[in-house]
Amino acid sequence: MRAIILSDTHGSRNKLCETVAALGDFDVLVHLGDGASDLDAVRPYINADIIAVKGNNDIFTNLPEWRAIELCGQKVYCCHGHNAGVRGKRDTLARLAREAGCSLAFYGHTHSQADETIDGVRCMNPGSIGYPVGGRAVIEMTDDGGETNIRFITGL
């Protein structure tokens, strides 16, 4: 299984389409909010499941603010992060993930890539597709024969 995790497209549908085209085949696309409606631009062109959560700018959507999902053999907490105070310390994010039974948390909101472990929870932010700080990137999560690999794909 190959999952792509991205965030904060903010109406940049062309950048989203370019990014998705550059990635090749994948099984799941996870959007961490702020531009979830931009997914309509890529739906016709991908053969993958799409999972999305609501960001602070996704006003007219009924998407949930967070989800605990199974990805590549891991239970993952997905949120935009604005309600978890991710611009400061990510302790609240880690606590919410643990309470949901997850050891991995994906979040957005800050537009900056991040990868840190807090109280046993790996917290990762792919950055922004629409307005990246430090360059456009996504997180790739794969399950190769029972081993989960997570890495940033940059230079898109």
Automatic annotation (TrEMBL):
This is Phosphoesterase. Its cofactor is a divalent metal cation. It comes from Candidatus Protoclostridium stercorigallinarum. It is an enzyme of class 3 (hydrolase). InterPro entries: Calcineurin-like_PHP_lpxH, Metallo-depent_PP-like, Phosphodiesterase_MJ0936/Vps29. Coiled coil: none annotated. Its EC number is 3.1.4.-. GO terms for molecular function: hydrolase activity; metal ion binding. Belongs to the metallophosphoesterase superfamily. YfcE family.
